[in-house]
Amino acid sequence: MTPKSSGPQRKATLIAAALTLWAIAYSGLVWFSFSQSSPEALRTLVETGVIKPAYADYIAAIPPWVRIVTVVLAGLRITGGIGLFWRQRWCVPVYRAALLLTAIIMIRGFVFADVASVIRPSQIGIEILFIVISIFAVLHAYRVTR
């Protein structure tokens, strides 16, 4: 390996690590969110002012298929990150699938369930950030594996 090529490879490895850590953090967020979605937990969150009652109703009404898709999405993001470490071409379709599932979840939440009316603007910003990172993951995986 020449010094000239070590810089881009190092950068690609750092980005792969960041995307993998993001995927692991997202998985933890999913687990935590699901653990806080029981009626008792939601009632406590509303009573303490952490979330609005309308948001608690939204969470309680999330269909099981959305929860399943969210878990699959978390797994795809982790798998994509692992593939990216080894510069495997299959990480590109994995990240594409993750982006597609992200879009499905976002369309369902924002278009069909009107979640924007019951969450804080900062939460909307986080959702936008997830989309941006998902798009970046696809583009970066394509660039480093071709």
Report helical residue fraction.
over 70%
Oligomeric category = single chain
| Strand residue content | under 5%
Mean pLDDT reading: 93
The dominant shape is elongated
Radius of gyration over C-alpha positions, nearest whole angstrom: 18 Å
- What is the N-to-C order of secondary-structure elements (H for helix, E for strand)? HHHHHH
Structural class: mainly alpha
Instruction: Give the low-pLDDT segments.
Output: none
- The count of DSSP E runs of length 2 or more, i.e. the number of strands, is 0
Biggest beta sheet summary: none
Distance linking N and C termini? 19 Å
Can you count the helices?
Answer: 6
Can you describe what's shown?
With about 150 residues, the protein is an all-alpha fold. Helix content is about 80%, strand content about 0%.
Short recap of the structure:
The chain has 146 residues and is mainly alpha-helical. It has six helices and no strands. The mean pLDDT is 93.
